[in-house]
Amino acid sequence: MRIELRQAGSGLLLAQLELDELGEIPQPGRWFLHGSRSFLVLQRHHRYQLRNGRYELATVALQVKAERQPREARWWNGGWVIGDPSCRFNARSPLLRCAVLPDGPCERCAHYSGRQG
After folding, report:
1. Are 76 and 92 in contact (CB under 8 A)?
2. How many structural domains are present in the chain?
3. Same domain, 6 and 50
4. How many other β-carbons are positioned within 10 Å of the β-carbon of residue 108?
5. Does 61 lie in the same domain as 10?
6. Calculated CA dihedral for residues 80, 58, 47, 39, nearest 10 degrees
7. 80 and 48 inside one domain
């Protein structure tokens, strides 16, 4: 299956690669390594082609942002988050740590507070 890596916003084609299985294609919110480059997947678009009277999945286009995975990123509840997800101010997102101290680190934040309920 053909995979296209496209720059988010402009749609510029960055790379094309072939994967054997659909399960290997990363979902949005996950980091993806291609060679020595690291990308954050923002969107995933499926492109179909009509063959023999049926539509078949031909290409998956990934809208990506060239970005190195932060060392503070951790796997939490089936997705990546930056910082400490137990803090009530944490955005629980791979894009943003929190509104109080977006650049971090969480260990030195005076506003750290555990989630209620």
Report:
1. yes
2. 2
3. yes
4. 8
5. yes
6. 30
7. no
Residue 83 and residue 103 share a domain: yes
> Residues of the chain with pLDDT > 70: what percent?
95
List of residues 6+ apart from 69 with CB closer than 8 A: 31, 38, 40, 80
pLDDT in tens, 11-43: 899 989 888 776 778 888 888 888 888 888 999
Q: Give the closest residue to 66 by CA, choosing from 104, 15, 20.
A: 15
Pairing relationship of beta strands 2-7 and 54-66 according to DSSP bridges? parallel
CA angle 106, 84, 25 (to 5 degrees): 125
| The overall pTM is greater than 0.70 | no
Chain centroid offset of residue 104 CA = 20
Range of the domain at 48: 2-66
Closest CA to 2 of 32, 63, 46, 43: 46
Mark whether 62 and 74 lie in a shared domain. Answer: no
75 and 62 both lie in a single domain: no
pLDDT of 50 strictly over 90 = yes
Least confident of 56-60, 69-73, 103-107: 103-107
